[in-house]
Amino acid sequence: MGLMDNLKQLGDLKKMRDQALEMQKKLAGIKITVEHKGVTVIMTADQKIISISGEQNFDKITEAVNEALKQSQKVAADEMKGMMGGLGIPGM
User: Fold this and answer.
1) Adjacency order of strands within the sheet including 39-44
2) Among 1, 12, 31, 52, which is most buried by a count of CB atoms within 10 Å?
3) How far apart are CA 67 and CA 73, in angstroms?
4) Residue 35 near residue 68 (C-beta atoms within 8 A)
5) Other C-beta atoms within 10 Å of 61: how many?
6) 84: which residues sit within 8 A by CB, 6+ positions away?
């Protein structure tokens, strides 16, 4: 493996890093609102909770947060599929 191959690999790694940072920033800007059993959870697609309001029952809050997490994971996966589609990775 020559110097040019190493430089190409470094360039590829930088491109992937830049894409990952771009995706992280994009996910942070997507807000998901879940209303579940009287609890409203607002969360970003990178799974940061912005607010929880409504019912003060711990079990209901837990269910609503878990539902918001599930939805944020789906949004993130869909966004990643779009990014990874151009890389030709099998199964993506």
Assistant:
1) 31-36, 39-44, 49-54
2) 52
3) 10
4) no
5) 19
6) 92
Q: DSSP of 6-46, one letter per residue? A: HHHHHHHHHHHHHHHHHHHHHHHT-EEEEEETTEEEEEETT
Q: What is the pLDDT of residues 34-52, one digit of tens each?
A: 999 999 999 999 999 999 9
Nearest to 85 by CA among 26, 23, 5, 29: 23
Q: If you count them, how many residues does the chain have?
A: 92
Return d(Cα 92, Cα 63) in angstroms, integer: 29
What number is the average pLDDT over the span 8-27? 86
Evaluate whether 56 touches 25 at the Cβ level (below 8 Å). Answer: no
Please tell us whether the domain made up of 3-83 is placed in CATH 3.20.20.70: no
Instruction: Output the pTM of the full model.
Output: 0.71
